[in-house]
Fold:
Amino acid sequence: KAIARERLSMDVLDWDVEGVKEMGVSFKTGTKAGRDFTIDGLLKQGFQAVFTATGGWDSRLARGDVNQGEMVFPGAYLLIDLLRSKSEKNINITSGKNVVIVGGGIRVPDAVNILKENGSENITIISRKHKTDASFDSAAIDELSKASATIIYNTGVTKVIGEEGQLKTIEYIELDTGVKHVIDTDTLIIASGRFPELVFIPVRNDEQDGEEDLIENNVPLVWEGIELQKKPDANRELGLLSNQDVISEYSSAVAAINGGRKAAAAIHNAMYGIQFQESSKFITEKTLLQDVSLLNNVDITPRNILTLRKAQKMSSEKFSTGFSAEEARAEADRCLRCGLICYEKS
Structure:
């Protein structure tokens, strides 16, 4: 629904989907996280990892799915749904005793008041900003202090941990020092336009042997959700809601491709126990690559926009005039800044 049919025909989309199916991928449409399936339920079925990429507010508008709150993984809600629940009674937010708010800005005091009315006791705000740069003015800080809310500055959430269908704790990192801490959490409020993209995996001790052991011995399923990899040269980008996170809709197909590659790498690492954020595994501008004798910067050239027809003629004529042969070659040669390293062997 989000892409006009004149820009992406169903034939092209069907062809692309069929190619993915031929790789052995199964599709289940018309299902909703938290209603038709749960993260812990999928892991109990034997899936080794679950990746969440649920889209943002724009996607919910396109689906006509904004009249209820969403909970993609246990205990997690968007701040906008919490704020709307105050006046829209059909939006039910079940907040627990220990609540963590990630981000939030000037609407955090309103959120804290709603949570207090709902019976929450311990409320912690995780802010990526330093205290001197925070969005809270003195009045907001006083209001939060009166509500016994705690603000932890210069930190980011790196992991969520739960048991069965309950969120239990979150892990956060000090952005300057890299020191990590864990805090009891049963409700996570996320101040962004979409749920973060996370990889969920089961956590087992050395005595557990696969899904069969969990079922036969009635062992509670413990799971964790891990953020995608970030660039190795910027510790301040670690944690959710950083500048490297996608917190609104993808701006272009290239950004979506990059997000997919990050997700695939994160899933692979999580399933096979490979350390996350290991800088030696990343390719950067200073990385030495085998069989590459020279890397040249590719000139950035502007995108060649197709000439569009006037709106009143769209019903009888094609959406665009198309590229000439010369324009098509120039567009094909243009660097899309996709993150791949293009080179020729000498």
